[in-house]
Design goal:
- The chain is mainly β.
- It has a single domain, classed as Jelly Rolls.
- It contains 1 helix and 10 strands.
Amino acid sequence: MQFSIDDCKVVELPIVHNASGNITVMENNMNIPFAIRRIYYLYDVPMGAERGGHAHYELQQYVVAASGSFTFILDDGENKKEVFLNHPNKALHIVPGIWREMKDFSSGSICLVFASIEYAESDYIREYNQFLNFRKNG
């Protein structure tokens, strides 16, 4: 099944409000539609730097701006859209087969990523022309 950028949605995560601070909980196969197999985060991204520039064959991700803000550019080979993340109770669900780039990191931003599979270099599509070929021919 091929997904489009329309399948990538910003999801509002539940907040448990408390006078001493809020908590947001994410649980496998409950408010995340997959089992989390890997967690990583990006931080200290230099001003003006861009990240990403790849797609995945199988990997799904939930991406949260744990602190600060940044912008994702999502591309399905035909259409593109930008998604601005700036609150820790909103997650961007990125489905397989979508090219992603990241830009406009604010100072002190932390990009927290929940991934559906462990790191596997074979799951990456790192060349844009290879990505377009994959989207066209499967």
